Amino acid sequence: MKIPKRIQPLVEDGLVDEVLRSLMSGKEAAVYVVRCGDQIRCAKVYKEANQRSFKKAAQYREGRKVRNSRRARAMEKGSKFGRSQQESSWQNAEVEALYRLSSAGVRVPQPYGCVEGVLLMELITGDDGSEAPRLNDVILTPEQAREDHAFIMHNVMLMLCAGLVHGDLSEFNVLLDEYGPVIIDLPQAVEAAANNNAQQMLTRDVDNMTAYYAQFAPELKNTRYAREIWSLYEAGDLHPDHELTGLYQDDDQESDVDGVLAEIKAIMEQEQDRQRRLKEAAEPES
């Protein structure tokens, strides 16, 4: 196929030898299947900020460190240079998260670097060697749903052990290969210790995944992994080998009204995001 303009510099630099086909085109990025030597990989081309539909980006950037003080000041002022640096930071965040999470044992695609706003990474394939389907495109048995749900909860825990929260986890950004779920789409991953929204985001991630798997195994609705994982994290008792139970006992203290209201708001936003994603998934690729 014709080489997309954004991938052309990678071809000229010898990083990509051939663009084989378009894999998907979403609101945040377009993904292509490419050949790099004798390896088949994928190239994720990030869209410009004014073309993206990702909401509340400022919430996700909270707590991200910018080592260069000049860059940090420019980003705060919102100058043209600052906006370009903000874009670079947004794109590099996914690369950094992928390396960090892969080292922590989380099932994510192997990254191979980000050049000119194009992320090269491993192509996740299914049993027959073709591109792995997204989780929302498959039907699961109750047993598989329970097994994969537990696996995802373990990976959410591993992410938090590495100091990160996905922040936008749902059945739309999990792939399913022959070994199980693979978590994708991480440009909005947040630093748990530095972002005031981290607990709410982790809860939303867990609720999204639990609601999906509960379609096939309804008893999963009664699990409380988010509370369990975050309470262990706050207490400093979270570690990669911890065996989660999905159980959590609330303290017999006076109700936290503000916390309840925040949780209700998060649930409403979650449903709005879910409906938006369903609508986007139904739209033909552009």
What order do the helices and strands come in, and which of them pair?
Elements lengths: L7 H5 L5 E8 L3 E8 L2 E8 L10 H5 L7 H9 L2 H24 L7 E5 L2 E5 L19 H20 L2 E2 L8 E4 L2 E4 L6 E2 L6 H16 L11 H10 L22 H26 L4
| Helical coverage, percent range | 40-55%
Mean pLDDT: 86
Note the overall shape.
globular
Measured by DSSP, the beta-strand proportion falls in 15-25%
Summarize, please.
The protein has 286 residues and is an alpha+beta fold. Helix content is 40%, strand content 16%.
Textual characterization of the structure:
- The chain is an alpha+beta fold and 286 residues long.
- The chain has eight helices and nine strands.
- The strands form three sheets. It has a five-stranded antiparallel sheet, with helices on one face. A two-stranded antiparallel ribbon has the order 6-9.
- A hairpin with a 2-residue loop joins strand 4 (111-115) and strand 5 (118-122).
- Helix 3 (69-77) packs across helix 4, helix 5 (142-161) packs antiparallel against helix 6 and helix 6 (198-213) packs antiparallel against helix 7.
- It is globular and about 60 Å long.
